[in-house]
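REQUEST FORM: STRUCTURE PREDICTION
Request ID: SP-0412
Submitted by: Lab K.M.
Chain count: 1
Length (residues): 326
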Amino acid sequence: MIEPAWVSRPDEVDALVAEWSARCPGTFVAEHKMQFAGRPVWALTVTDTSVADEGKRKVMLFKPHAHEPAPIAAQMNVVSQLLTGETIDGRPSEFDSERVLSQCLLVFMPDANPEGTARAPVEAWDGSEYTNEEFWVWMRGLHPQTGKMWERYDKWDMREVDPKPETIGIVYEQVSEHEYVEPNRHHDSSLFQLLFRLLEQREYSLLMGLHQTEFVGQMENAMAIVPIVFEEQPEHFREREMQVGRRMLEWWRKWGGRPIGEVKPLGYSGVQAEYFRRAWGDLYERCAAVTSEIRNNSLLCPPSQQRTLSEAAIWAGIEAALDWAD
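STATUS: Completed
RESULT:
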């Protein structure tokens, strides 16, 4: 059973965005990029608009993948606390929202591929209904010859791939009649299109990517990752990234998590590494960036804990940013 504080379905997100837009005009601004499939990808700016933006710590948070719903629920619950002083299920917030709103400008992208999220068979992957092999088929599609997970591409065209997937994985966003992208690997995605629009408006202190992974064969349930180009970044970015990553470890331990105890650069190699370098390389020269990974599709990490640990990563990033001068 999904907890009351869990909001991840696109229609639920849209309804809360409309409610907050009406109730909180002084602290909440919603803008969006419309997907090819017709769903809005939201960018939700949360700040005290009566305080000048100059000097505020500016943080952008985003969740790229449709098969990773806990970061949606976590972001929506954090936004609720900042705007209303309460969690989505009505419990008083423990956090100093007034300080955060006056000293930070936060932009949340709770779901960069709502069309994919809408096609998921469950609200949360708890490990009880689908094996990881079945989960991965939902993620990237069904291979017609092997009966297992289809291929992983940054961008692909249904007219050109061979073999064609028997089903289209929910990780992929449709961007034209025949073309699909993985949102955090290609600039044609709604994630990047909206991110670039936002970066034209202002610079940011920190980019936070919120993810989930399966931690197969491990007992850990959380991990902090710095960019694949970490060693090539300016020193002050590297310092900030390590500060945020270590703060995440502290928060996860405090909230009952079992994090991997070292903050490391993204470990991809080969084609997957090239996708990231091509998509993110220029952005990693502009600001610090950290990624959180929370365990997915496992009986060892139920949905309530998935959301809690993802939320802890968000609060850790905000707390770290409050220590910086923008």
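NOTES: The mean pLDDT is 96.
Reviewed by: T.R.
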